[in-house]
What we know:
Distance between the termini: 34 Å
Largest sheet: 2 strands, parallel
Radius of gyration: 17 Å
Order of helices and strands: HEHEHHH
Number of helices: 5
Oligomer: single chain
Strand content: 5-15%
Structural class: mainly alpha
Number of domains: 2
Amino acid sequence: MSLTGGNHNDxxxxxxxxAKVPAVSGLVGRPRRRPxxxxxxxxxxxxKYRRLVWKQGIKPVIARRxxxxxxxxxxxxxxxxxxxxxxxxxRRLRVRWERRDDIHEAFLGLATCLITHxxxxxxx
Length: 124
């Protein structure tokens, strides 16, 4: 995944993100190269991106603009929003001060390790 500025639209990073999805292993036989379903919010609601995802053999489950909620995508989105909130608990990640991508990604990795360590400690 590539790192972009805060003023860039997320949907521009959809094709590179789909290209970098690793093989899904765990089942007997050849591993899947693509996920079965792509869950996305209303920001990705455009026929261009739906076709792009279908061409790669992935079923797009994208919320439609102007339609009332009811797709149950919020249950899956909550996990992502919660993770982002945990990462924003680290002041250095809340606002990106580093100009170099590798340093920022290193801090993301450290924050992920600390979050995981805290959760494991609660289980023990």
